Protein backbone atom coordinates (compact mmCIF):
# COMPACT_ATOMS: atom_id res chain seq x y z
CA UNK A 1 0.00 0.00 0.00
CA UNK A 2 1.46 3.36 -1.01
CA UNK A 3 1.29 6.29 1.39
CA UNK A 4 -1.34 8.92 0.69
CA UNK A 5 0.20 12.08 -0.78
CA UNK A 6 -0.01 15.03 1.59
CA UNK A 7 0.62 18.75 1.77
CA UNK A 8 1.71 20.23 5.09
CA UNK A 9 0.86 23.89 5.45
CA UNK A 10 1.76 26.15 8.37
CA UNK A 11 -0.29 29.32 7.92
CA UNK A 12 1.64 31.18 10.62
CA UNK A 13 5.36 31.82 10.96
CA UNK A 14 6.76 28.91 12.89
CA UNK A 15 9.69 29.87 15.08
CA UNK A 16 10.25 33.62 14.94
CA UNK A 17 7.96 34.64 17.82
CA UNK A 18 9.63 32.01 19.97
CA UNK A 19 13.13 33.13 18.96
CA UNK A 20 12.29 36.80 19.56
CA UNK A 21 10.89 36.12 23.02
CA UNK A 22 13.87 34.01 24.06
CA UNK A 23 16.23 36.66 22.64
CA UNK A 24 14.67 39.39 24.78
CA UNK A 25 14.91 37.13 27.82
CA UNK A 26 18.61 36.49 27.16
CA UNK A 27 19.34 40.20 26.69
CA UNK A 28 17.54 40.96 29.96
CA UNK A 29 19.57 38.27 31.71
CA UNK A 30 22.83 39.66 30.35
CA UNK A 31 21.87 43.18 31.45
CA UNK A 32 21.07 41.83 34.92
CA UNK A 33 24.40 39.99 35.07
CA UNK A 34 26.40 43.06 33.99
CA UNK A 35 24.68 45.52 36.33
CA UNK A 36 21.89 44.34 38.64
CA UNK A 37 20.92 47.96 39.30
CA UNK A 38 20.60 48.84 35.61
CA UNK A 39 17.00 47.69 35.20
CA UNK A 40 16.21 46.36 38.64
CA UNK A 41 16.04 42.72 39.65
CA UNK A 42 12.23 42.62 39.91
CA UNK A 43 11.74 44.22 36.49
CA UNK A 44 14.09 41.84 34.68
CA UNK A 45 12.66 38.83 36.50
CA UNK A 46 9.10 39.77 35.63
CA UNK A 47 10.08 40.59 32.05
CA UNK A 48 11.90 37.29 31.62
CA UNK A 49 9.04 35.27 33.05
CA UNK A 50 6.52 37.10 30.88
CA UNK A 51 8.55 36.57 27.73
CA UNK A 52 9.22 32.89 28.44
CA UNK A 53 5.55 32.17 29.16
CA UNK A 54 4.33 34.13 26.14
CA UNK A 55 6.86 32.43 23.86
CA UNK A 56 5.73 29.01 25.07
CA UNK A 57 2.11 30.04 24.49
CA UNK A 58 2.91 31.24 20.96
CA UNK A 59 4.95 28.12 20.22
CA UNK A 60 2.29 25.72 21.47
CA UNK A 61 -0.54 27.49 19.66
CA UNK A 62 0.93 27.05 16.21
CA UNK A 63 -1.35 25.65 13.57
CA UNK A 64 -0.53 23.02 11.03
CA UNK A 65 -2.80 21.85 8.25
CA UNK A 66 -2.35 18.47 6.63
CA UNK A 67 -4.18 17.95 3.35
CA UNK A 68 -4.34 14.43 1.96
CA UNK A 69 -5.86 13.05 -1.21
CA UNK A 70 -7.70 9.79 -0.59
CA UNK A 71 -8.14 8.00 -3.91
CA UNK A 72 -10.13 5.12 -2.42
CA UNK A 73 -12.76 7.39 -0.86
CA UNK A 74 -12.50 10.02 -3.61
CA UNK A 75 -12.05 12.89 -1.21
CA UNK A 76 -9.62 15.47 0.09
CA UNK A 77 -9.11 15.34 3.84
CA UNK A 78 -8.10 18.47 5.74
CA UNK A 79 -6.72 18.07 9.26
CA UNK A 80 -6.20 21.19 11.37
CA UNK A 81 -3.77 20.43 14.18
CA UNK A 82 -3.43 22.96 16.96
CA UNK A 83 -2.02 21.84 20.26
CA UNK A 84 -3.49 21.58 22.89
CA UNK A 85 -6.86 21.69 21.11
CA UNK A 86 -8.37 18.67 19.41
CA UNK A 87 -7.64 18.01 15.74
CA UNK A 88 -10.42 19.24 13.42
CA UNK A 89 -11.01 17.10 10.33
CA UNK A 90 -13.00 18.16 7.27
CA UNK A 91 -13.48 16.26 4.02
CA UNK A 92 -14.67 17.29 0.57
CA UNK A 93 -15.32 15.08 -2.49
CA UNK A 94 -12.46 15.45 -4.99
CA UNK A 95 -14.98 16.19 -7.74
CA UNK A 96 -16.24 19.22 -5.79
CA UNK A 97 -12.86 20.95 -5.42
CA UNK A 98 -12.07 23.20 -8.40
CA UNK A 99 -9.10 25.28 -7.21
CA UNK A 100 -6.87 26.37 -4.33
CA UNK A 101 -6.42 30.14 -4.15
CA UNK A 102 -4.85 32.76 -1.93
CA UNK A 103 -7.28 35.27 -0.47
CA UNK A 104 -6.18 38.73 0.64
CA UNK A 105 -7.85 40.30 3.67
CA UNK A 106 -10.12 43.02 2.25
CA UNK A 107 -10.46 44.74 5.63
CA UNK A 108 -6.80 44.66 6.63
CA UNK A 109 -4.55 47.69 6.66
CA UNK A 110 -1.60 45.43 5.89
CA UNK A 111 -1.41 42.69 3.31
CA UNK A 112 -2.43 39.46 5.02
CA UNK A 113 -3.42 36.23 3.31
CA UNK A 114 -4.96 32.79 3.70
CA UNK A 115 -5.45 29.78 1.46
CA UNK A 116 -8.97 28.74 0.43
CA UNK A 117 -10.45 25.95 -1.64
CA UNK A 118 -12.92 26.86 -4.37
CA UNK A 119 -15.77 24.38 -4.72
CA UNK A 120 -17.84 23.57 -7.80
CA UNK A 121 -20.66 25.74 -6.44
CA UNK A 122 -18.29 28.72 -6.41
CA UNK A 123 -18.16 28.76 -2.62
CA UNK A 124 -14.79 29.46 -1.04
CA UNK A 125 -13.72 27.37 1.93
CA UNK A 126 -10.85 29.03 3.84
CA UNK A 127 -8.40 26.61 5.38
CA UNK A 128 -7.93 28.94 8.36
CA UNK A 129 -10.21 31.44 10.07
CA UNK A 130 -7.62 34.19 10.27
CA UNK A 131 -5.48 35.96 7.68
CA UNK A 132 -1.70 35.82 8.26
CA UNK A 133 1.36 37.57 6.89
CA UNK A 134 3.76 35.90 4.47
CA UNK A 135 2.14 35.94 1.03
CA UNK A 136 4.84 33.79 -0.58
CA UNK A 137 4.26 30.99 1.95
CA UNK A 138 0.53 30.98 1.13
CA UNK A 139 1.17 31.07 -2.64
CA UNK A 140 3.51 28.08 -2.32
CA UNK A 141 0.91 26.16 -0.28
CA UNK A 142 -1.82 26.90 -2.86
CA UNK A 143 0.43 25.60 -5.68
CA UNK A 144 1.24 22.45 -3.69
CA UNK A 145 -2.45 21.83 -3.03
CA UNK A 146 -3.26 22.35 -6.72
CA UNK A 147 -0.57 19.83 -7.66
CA UNK A 148 -1.74 17.34 -5.02
CA UNK A 149 -5.32 17.50 -6.25
CA UNK A 150 -4.39 17.61 -9.96
CA UNK A 151 -6.14 20.95 -10.46
CA UNK A 152 -3.60 22.65 -12.73
CA UNK A 153 -0.97 21.44 -15.12
Short description:
With 153 residues, this protein is α+β, with helices and mostly antiparallel strands. The protein has helices at residues 16-34, 36-39, 41-60, 135-149, and strands at 6-9, 63-70, 75-82, 88-93, 97-104, 113-119, 124-126.
Strand content: 25-35%
The mean pLDDT is 78
Helix percentage: 25-40%
Compute the number of helices: 4
Low-confidence stretches: none
Measured between the Cα atoms of the first and last residue, the distance is 26 Å
Class by alpha and beta content: alpha+beta
Count of beta strands? 7
| Topology pattern, helix = H, strand = E | EHHHEEEEEEH
Radius of gyration: 21 Å
Protein described:
It is a single chain. This protein is of the alpha+beta class and 153 residues long. Helix content is 38%, strand content 29%. It contains four helices and seven strands. The protein has helices spanning 16-34, 36-39, 41-60, 135-149; strands spanning 6-9, 63-70, 75-82, 88-93, 97-104, 113-119, 124-126. The protein has a four-stranded antiparallel β-sheet, with helices on one face. Strands 5-6-7 form a three-stranded antiparallel β-sheet, with helices on one face. A hairpin with a 4-residue loop joins strand 2 and strand 3 (75-82). 14% of the residues are buried. The model has no long low-confidence stretch (mean pLDDT 78).
Using brief descriptors, characterize the structure shown.
single chain, alpha+beta, 3-stranded antiparallel β-sheet, 4 helices, 38% helix, 4-stranded antiparallel β-sheet, 153 residues, 7 strands
Amino acid sequence: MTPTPAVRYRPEPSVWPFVACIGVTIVGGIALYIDPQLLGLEFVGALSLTWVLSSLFLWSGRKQLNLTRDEQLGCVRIELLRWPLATRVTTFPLAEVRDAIVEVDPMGETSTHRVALVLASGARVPLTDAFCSGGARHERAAREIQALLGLRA
